[in-house]
Amino acid sequence: MRATESAITAEGVRKSYAGGVDGAGLNGFDLRVPAGTVCGLLGPNGAGKTTAVRILSTLLDLDSGHASVAGFDVRTQPRRVREHIGLVGQYAAVDEILTGRQNLVMFGRLNHLSSTAAGRRADELLERFSLTETGRKPVGKYSGGMRRRLDLATSLIVTPLVLFVDEPTTGLDPAARREVWTAIRDLVDSGTTVLLTTQYLEEADRLADRISMLRAGRVVTEGTPEELKSAIGGDWLDIVLAEPADVAATAAIAARVASGEIHLDGGARRVSVPVDRRTRALVEVATALGDAGIEPADITLRRPTLDEVFLQLTGDPPATPAGGATPAAHRSTTTGSATATEASRAAGGDARRAATTTGPTTATEASA
Amino acid sequence: MSTTTSPLPGRSPLSRAGWALTDAWTITRRDLNHWALRPGAVIVGWAFPVMIVLMFGGLFGGAISVPGGGGYFEFLMPGMFTMTMLFGLETTMTAVATDASRGVTDRFRSMPMSASAVVLGRCAADMLNSIVGLSIMIGAGLLLGWRWHGGPAAALAAVGLLLLLRAALLWAGILIGLVAGGPESLASVQILVWPVGFLSNVFVDPATMPAWLGAIAAWNPLSATASATRELFGNPGWGGESWIAQNAMPMAVVWPLLLTAIFLPLSVRRFRRLGS
């Protein structure tokens, strides 16, 4: 293994698409991923996540800037880079007609293993990814989760120094998603550096050591999940109401103690308030609610979720994984105007509407 | 966990070429595995031209008088061999477009293997497919009463011309497959294969067509190969006084070389530009 401080480095990488096709470009993209860590690249659709991965994995040329992977320049030494990377794409890039084992043997041969070594490695990987039984069936008959695990196994035939995982669980059900997460975590334990792109905050929170948030082709903020959560201010006060009609009045009361934007969820009858002074805010709000004759179903203090960080920093609502693993992924943000409340109530619990207005202080300012 | 490392690739051009050939063979074997796992698809591909022969033999056999007399199959078979080479284009296009859209091409490109191996492997697999298809057609022709009348050398030369045309169409297939981006968008191209096949001297004498249409049909590369193979097999042909009809034999070599000269650089360029 080649000793490098950072396994992935990108400095001022720019890429634009003349026709505007095939996703978003990069606009001064910077990234440093220390060897042996997992970096989560988080951002909405079109932020440039896939473009970044394609450039770093030598599939796409960059317009300007500099990028190196495992110590080799992606532009001048693409072949050396390819010797050290694995790529797991959004689409399981395996042959559908061949069996799982035939796929592994073929890619093993293309990695220049002898045919016995390729066969042995295929069996090892099938066992490790719990695919031994299905290994002799054509991939076309695999479930989504099995296919993604095979894709991951294929990327690990020759143990890569750096593994790129591009939206590994898009379109998977919750059970399959957990299977893939377990597989990635095991891999990280063995020392591989991982760059993971995802739209799912829960995924980044679970897998990544550090998270870089991407917006419009550049990293807007970077840190550990915990740092990002504290960056948007202290704790949150969640008030769940018994009566939907009380949401607007509650938001008005909560605004007095809020240290940032208040999030309204009309469908869930929930008001979420960022607060600095925890206990005092709790007492103040509880008292004011009592004075106003509002009886909340529940009041809790909690740490912010990455959803809230995402919303604060990118202004875009994050995606909810199919199957709804993050219960409070979408929130309406408002100062508490009656119309927004009406709108979100009318829209119902599923189609929540985001009506964003400025709170007393925005979190970005607060953290700056 | 066990760790596997790849043997360091050789840096000398010779060892690189060796790896490129090994890799190409791995890619070719992948297609052979496809045949074994999904025999239906490949068998239908091989049976399809036989079906066309039976259909056209039955439909037109009685209606079209063959130049110089003799059975319709005597006349039809060399043209249908040529059509079989054209149908091979669809195999290439579909395979290339499917790999590109499913991310398999990207995986190949992210591996430390030479790009030429991917293309070479594809070519070898498709040529093998067409050789089997052509053998089946020759067998079917023999069963239906078609014979070659020249010597074995002339017959082999005819087969050589047919495969030369197929090899030229490979590059067109690779280019179209890469441009299409997915097998779904190939439907329109597949429909166009038919007019290209019919606008030739394969079924009908171009002299009986309106002048402009006849000229297009006569200059169709398929016509040169069909005429040349009819001549080499000693089967009846349309003849004709035009320059192109008189020079079918050299043109059956020139056309495929010209098509290769156009489509090979274009498809290589397209493959390289997947990264830009």
TrEMBL record, chain A:
This is ABC-2 type transport system ATP-binding protein. It comes from Streptosporangium canum. Pfam families: ABC_tran. Transmembrane segments: none annotated. GO terms for molecular function: ATP binding; ATP hydrolysis activity. SMART domains: AAA. Residues 314-368 are annotated as: Disordered. The keyword Metal-binding does not apply. Gene3D superfamilies: P-loop containing nucleotide triphosphate hydrolases (3.40.50.300). The keyword Translocase applies. GO terms for cellular component: plasma membrane. It comes from the Bacteria. It is a peripheral membrane protein. Keywords: Antibiotic resistance, ATP-binding, Cell membrane, Membrane, Nucleotide-binding, Translocase, Transport. PROSITE patterns: ABC_TRANSPORTER_1, ABC_TRANSPORTER_2. GO terms for biological process: daunorubicin transport; doxorubicin transport; response to antibiotic. Residues 8-241 form the ABC transporter domain. It is found in: Cell membrane. Belongs to the ABC transporter superfamily. Drug exporter-1 (DrugE1) (TC 3.A.1.105) family. SUPFAM superfamilies: P-loop containing nucleoside triphosphate hydrolases (SSF52540).
From TrEMBL, chain B:
One of its GO terms (cellular component) is ATP-binding cassette (ABC) transporter complex. The chain crosses the membrane at residues 40-64, 76-98, 119-148, 154-179, 186-204, 248-268. InterPro entries: ABC2_TM, ABC2_TM_bact-type, ABC_2_transport, Nod_factor_ABC_transporter. It is found in: Cell membrane; Membrane. This is Transport permease protein. The keyword Transferase does not apply. GO terms for biological process: response to antibiotic.
